[in-house]
Structure formats: structure tokens, C-alpha cells
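Class prep. Sample record?

___
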Amino acid sequence: MVRAAQKKYTVSERCACRVLAIHRTSHRYVSKRAQPVALIRRLRDLALSRPRYGYRRLLILLRRENWKINHKRLYRVHKEEGQPSGESELRVDSA
């Protein structure tokens, strides 16, 4: 948003941030968090083998394998990976 305002109105970053009510430090922030590659790989394997399991059940399975992971972090990683949840699938009656 700030970059677009700067280009469109040819104003400084400070001015664009002031008008948009955004702190410059927030605008310039770059996350230093590393991606948990091993966790993502294991989560993907579990989710593919058990497609109806949600992140809570996958958390239980990971903890049984001695993974030290917070439920909020697992939820974020699960959501970012776009893992399918079984809840959204429609059930087809055989009768």
C-alpha cells in the first residue's frame, strides 16, 4: 500500500506512511523466522496418509513422535501449507 501511494503520488515513504496511518517500522519489518522444513515435510506426510484429520489430531500424532511443537505454531504451518481438512468434504450416502 505504501509503495503504491509513493509511486502514484510521488511522495516520500514518511509522508505516505503518515497519510495511511502506518508506522514506518511496521512497513519496513522483515521476518527472520526460519521455515521448519522437517516439520512441514512430516506434517504433509501425515496429512496425506490421514486426509480426514485436522490440525488438532495431527498435533497428537506429532507429539507421540516426540515433536516439541506448540498448537498455535502447528495451526499456522498447517494453514500456510493449505492442507485439506476432511470437514469441508461432502459425505456421499451409499443408500
Q: What stands out?
A: The mean pLDDT is 88. Residues 37-85 form one domain.
